[in-house]
Amino acid sequence: MIPKAGYEFVSGGAGDEWTLRENRRAFNNYHIAAKRLVGLTKDNIDISTQLLGLKMQSPIMVAPMGAHAMVHDQGEKDTARGAGLANTLYCSSGASNATLEEIAKATTGPKWFQLYWNNDLQVTRSLLTRAKEAGYSAIILTADALGPGQPDAFKAMGSPFRPDRNFGNHDPKKGGFGNFFDQKTSLTTADIQFIKKLTGLPVIVKGVLRPDDADRFIRAGANAIQVSNHGGRQIDGVPASITALPPIVKAVNKRVPVILDGGIRRGIDIIRAIAMGADAVAVGRPMLYGLGLGGAQGVESVINFLNNDLKSTMLLTGAAKLSDLNPDYIEIVGQNEEYSTFQG
Ligand code: FNR
Question: Of 23, 25, 230, 266, which is best to mutate to test ligand 1, by the most ligand atoms within 8 angstroms of its C-beta?
Fold first, then answer.
């Protein structure tokens, strides 16, 4: 159902795609130590949580992703509508085809805006102000990318982004301006405060893979840390997100929430992430496959599948609520640096 260019764009990763594969494989390093005879029934299972003041029916959110028109004509409008139908947090990418205002209108659920910092400060300011006015309740600062990643297979096709769709937020016909590709590489921790002062909104720094970075960002005012390698789409050779998680959780030390994304495909992956210290997870590609197959309803069904799978897997794991999950539910396979840090 998804056009070839769209499929190559979405499914691939950077370089040899080692990190992309590792994002899935590394979950296997962490076995589930399920508990038995703990008196749970289906009705006991509660997957609701709170994140930066939002009440969430589950720890799942839709990760920010650009260019949804590559997989479905309705693009982000349908993805956002599907997230709303499933009452799920939608993160709107700065690289969307639709405008942030169109996306805000399309969802009935909560929403955050992801910023690609533009070298032209007027553009950056205007994106942030528009996001605030459109009702986005937090800003995600993506720190690990310069716009949409382009897998080799997509580049080999000549990077066939749809000529009839541009980056909506920068479209002069829709009230935008500036060149999307003119992105700032020289981001610093001072930029966190800039966003907070301008918008008064909490800032999530996305793309964190090192504990000392997480610490620096929190000291600089970050309200949450998103452990992510951008779905293996930017730099190949960095560790899987789940591998990077334990030392970061330790460094964060509950000062702010930790979000994890990368390779989340089933309830059991979410259980691992939460047991190892994440507060919530973001899901990327599966949302776009749902969009491609069934528009808004497809997205809704992906979210419902993950929520139901999480619930039944919690029952089998022997945990009633997310706050019950802790490292006691995880057995670590093999020794590596992350292992000793996690244990320590
Ligand atoms: C992304 N991602 C991303 N991240 C971001 O901060 N801004 C963006 O515009 C995009 N664009 C984007 C496009 C596509 C097609 C994909 C697949 C991903 C990364 C995304 O937010 C998230 O980190 C990963 O997708 C999570 O990994 P999984 O769930 O796809 O394995």
Answer: 230
C-alpha distance from residue 276 to each of 86, 123, 186, 249, 250 (Å): 26, 38, 32, 8, 10
Averaged pLDDT score across all residues of the chain: 96
CB atoms within 10 A of CB 21: 15
230 in catalytic set: yes
Q: Please give the distance, rounded to the nearest whole angstrom, from the Cα atom of residue 262 to the centre of ligand 1.
A: 8
Report the alpha-carbon distance of residue 86 to residue 109 in Å, rounded.
8
**Does ligand 1 lie within 6 Å of residue 264's CB atom?**
yes
SS3 content of the chain, % helix, strand, coil (to 5): 45, 15, 40
142 in ligand 1 pocket by Cβ < 6 Å?
yes
pLDDT tens-place string over residues 132-191: 999 999 999 999 997 788 999 999 999 999 999 999 999 999 999 999 999 999 999 999
Mean local confidence (pLDDT), 203-228: 98
Atom of ligand 1 lying closest to residue 263 CA: 31
For β-strands 330-332 and 30-32, DSSP reports them as antiparallel
* Residue 336 pLDDT: 54
**Which SS3 state, helix, strand or coil, does residue 336 take?**
coil
Name the DSSP letter for residue 168.
G
